[in-house]
Amino acid sequence: MNRLWQGIVAALILSGVILSGVALAESPVKHTETLRVGPYTVQVFFSEFPIRAERSLDLTFKPEGGLAGKTATWKLIHPDGSSRQAQARPLPRFPRDRTLWGFDSLALPTQGDWQLELALNGASGSGTTRLPLAVLERPAGPPSDLILFLATIPLLALFVVAVRAWVRVQPLRRLESRQW
């Protein structure tokens, strides 16, 4: 029995190590664009392309010469021209590669022609540009009947286990009641 527990613990540790490596793996770059932001050249990397509504993607920015001595802000412009952000926010470092700026999981809610306003300040000056983001319609999901069927499988399994346990216990109850 002790060996069984050691095997289970070893398997859990091994799967945790393997899965943590998979979770930290960087998303592959599917599309790249080059922007001119004032005196700076910035490469923009997309993990998904074309962009679809309600579908998350990684969006990273790499200015020529690196991030040292530079600051950047961003503002998202909706297809109707409005912005829910009163002022531009600082562009964060990308969590999986600290040498880049970026978003780990950006999802735009609706289709349309979005724009990302990017402002960059540094020793060579400052500049602002807008990156057009053409967002296509949301991808179709699985049929609702399939989702309902898959969601009821655990409930059906629990029901089968409960019935089986009840059937196994019934003969014992009858036997005990006769012995009294």
Describe the structure.
The protein is of the alpha+beta class and 180 residues long. The chain has a domain at 28-136: Sandwich (Immunoglobulin-like). Helices cover 32% and strands 37% of the residues. The strands form two sheets. A five-stranded antiparallel sheet has the order 1-2-4-8-7, with no helix packed on it. A hairpin with a 2-residue loop joins strand 1 and strand 2 (40-46). The chain starts with a helix and ends with a helix.
What keywords describe this structure?
5-stranded mixed beta sheet; 180 residues; 32% helix; Immunoglobulin-like; alpha+beta; elongated; 2 helices
The CATH architecture of the domain at 28-136: Sandwich
Query: Quaternary state, please?
Result: single chain
Number of DSSP-assigned strands: 10
Number of H/I helices = 2
In angstroms, what separates the terminal alpha carbons?
Answer: 38 Å
Q: Can you tell me the overall shape?
A: elongated
Helix-strand pattern: HEEEEEEEEEEH
CATH superfamily of the domain at 28-136: Macroglobulin (MG2) domain
Per CATH, the class of the domain at 28-136 reads Mainly Beta
| Main sheet: strands, sense, barrel | 5 strands, antiparallel
Sheet-strand content, in percent, reads 35-45%
- CATH topology heading of the domain at 28-136: Immunoglobulin-like
Low-confidence segments = none
**Computed CA radius of gyration, to the nearest angstrom:** 27 Å
Q: Average pLDDT across residues?
A: 86
Helix content: 25-40%
Spatial strand order of the main sheet = 1-2-4-8-7
Give the structural class.
alpha+beta
